[in-house]
């Protein structure tokens, strides 16, 4: 993991934390969502128990919710989900689970970017770009009972095939089922939405560009002028665009990103507060401590001990 990146969870880490056989190499993992959102708890050991789960996953995450309700934030935008919903989280985007429901059922699948890149593609640009932009704006899909049944069956088939380690064509069989799954997903999405080619607005393009820069540089660069300079716009205009689209200024975004990063790093075993301060490029530990307490109401040491 590069020191300049926000924490990025790889599938190998998910496998190690969950510890089950429903996975293929470090490219695919499937887990049941049951009461108390067990899959999320297992993947979030870096975080305080009462804090929202905040991670970036190095792959495509599909959540098939069949029972219960949950609120999920993607890139700080809130999405309330209910039963019979399919939710997409595209690679590298920030995921926060706002609560841990007591009555939740479904399945979650995470597919690595490497495996995605090796699946057959209709074409390299137009079709895939259109789908990406659409899912970026519309990550949740309400499903009929029949659609839930079809997708649940495919999730189960892929899960069982992942267990069949002795299969002579293990990888090829899984890829074939994933290809089938993606065509079912396309069929559902295209039938429900009149998808026609569209482009992001100029302000949306700037927002997307800012997110990419922030993901890459947030640990080492904390100033609005750095990001505005990289984007060839003024700091005032950047803040105005972000405020209009998200309700948050550039400083709000940078501070929130640093706090998310700090919380996860503080839960990393054997890492001192000084090391966290250094990794986040604060001038000294005292400055980092004041920043952290201002935004959380706790000192880094208090947060690490789990005090609220």
TrEMBL record:
Pfam families: HTH_18 (PF12833)
Sections of the chain in a coiled coil: none
Keywords: DNA-binding, Transcription, Transcription regulation
InterPro entries per record: Homeodomain-like_sf, HTH_AraC
Gene3D superfamilies with a match to the protein in the record: Homeodomain-like
UniProt keyword annotation of Transcription regulation present: yes
Molecular function via GO: DNA-binding transcription factor activity; sequence-specific DNA binding
Ranges where the HTH araC/xylS-type domain occurs: 208-306
Protein name: HTH araC/xylS-type domain-containing protein
Organism: bioreactor metagenome
């Amino acid at each position: 993991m590069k020191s300049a990146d926000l924490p990025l969870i790889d599938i190998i880490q998910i496998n190690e934390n969950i510890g089950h056989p429903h996975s293929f190499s470090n490219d695919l993992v499937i887990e049941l969502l049951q009461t108390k959102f067990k899959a999320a708890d297992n993947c979030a050991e870096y975080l305080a128990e009462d804090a929202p789960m905040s991670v970036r996953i190095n792959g495509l995450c599909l959540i098939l919710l069949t029972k219960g309700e949950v609120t999920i934030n993607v890139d700080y935008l809130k999405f309330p989900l209910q039963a019979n919903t399919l939710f997409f989280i595209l690679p590298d985007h920030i995921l926060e689970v706002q609560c841990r429901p007591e009555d939740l059922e479904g399945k979650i699948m995470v597919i690595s970017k490497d495996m995605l890149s090796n699946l057959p593609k209709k074409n390299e640009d137009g079709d895939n770009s259109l789908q990406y932009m659409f899912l970026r704006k519309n990550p949740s899909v309400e499903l009929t009972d029949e659609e839930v049944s079809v997708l649940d069956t495919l999730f189960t088939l892929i899960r069982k095939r992942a267990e069949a380690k002795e299969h002579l064509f293990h990888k090829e069989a899984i890829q074939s089922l994933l290809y089938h799954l993606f065509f079912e997903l396309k069929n559902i999405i295209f039938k429900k939405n009149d998808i026609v080619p569209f482009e992001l607005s100029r302000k949306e393009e700037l927002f997307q560009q800012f997110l990419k820069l922030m993901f890459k540089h947030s640990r080492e660069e904390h100033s609005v002028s750095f990001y505005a300079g990289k984007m060839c716009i003024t700091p005032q205009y950047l803040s105005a665009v972000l405020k209009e689209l998200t309700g948050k200024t550039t400083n709000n975004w940078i501070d929130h990103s640093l706090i998310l990063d700090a919380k996860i790093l503080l839960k990393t075993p054997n890492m001192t507060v000084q090391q966290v301060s250094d990794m986040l490029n604060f001038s000294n530990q005292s400055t980092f401590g004041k920043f952290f307490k201002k935004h959380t109401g706790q000192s880094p040491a208090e947060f690490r001990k789990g005090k609220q």
